[in-house]
Design a protein that fits this description.
CATH superfamily of the largest domain: Glutaredoxin
CATH architecture of the largest domain: 3-Layer(aba) Sandwich
Distance between the termini: 24 Å
Strand order of the largest sheet: 2-1-3-4
Number of strands: 4
Shape: elongated
Radius of gyration: 17 Å
Largest sheet: 4 strands, mixed
Structural class: alpha+beta
Length: about 160
């Protein structure tokens, strides 16, 4: 992490409308989370209070102040998914990955999170890995899906 990267990211988002959000999205994409020292640099570069940067960073669930794995696995726990056994999917994923919900694998490859709704209720139950949505998932599919991502899916 260095100041040059932060300056480059800030410079690539010149539009004042939504600039902070765009910069934070780019930073999270670059580092997979929002490191404290980088947030300080962002506040300085944008000439806004650090409290405002933290306010935005902590308001949106898409942002993380903790390091995340290369691949983010989100398990929908919305009503439609819950009724169709979302808890089973979380348990299967925990077992397949060797971590608990909210944790990252030791190799830094996966972070597992439970989310309230992925907005795909007609496809329930749903899990999402990075931008790939898996709908109407069956518990027995979990090991295969994880194996695909372990084997390099999404590294294109």
């Amino acid at each position: 992490m260095n100041d040059v990267d932060v300056r480059r990211i800030v410079a690539s988002h010149p539009d004042p409308e939504g600039r902070l959000l765009s910069v934070l999205e780019a930073i999270q994409q670059r580092w997979r989370y929002l490191p404290e020292e980088v947030l300080r640099d962002v506040a300085q570069e944008l000439q806004i209070p650090l409290s405002r940067v933290y306010g935005v960073a902590t308001f949106y669930a898409a942002f993380s102040l903790e390091p995340r794995g290369k691949h983010l696995i989100s398990v929908c726990h919305g009503t439609a998914c819950h009724v169709k056994g979302a808890g089973q999917f979380t348990e299967r994923l925990e077992k397949a990955l060797g971590i608990r919900e909210g944790e990252t694998t030791e190799d830094g490859l996966f972070t597992l999170e439970a989310v309230r709704c992925l907005g795909c209720c007609s496809l329930s139950p749903v899990i999402r890995i990075d931008g790939t949505t898996y709908g109407r998932v069956r518990p027995e599919q979990i090991p295969e899906i994880v194996a695909q991502w372990r084997g390099g899916k999404g590294d294109d």
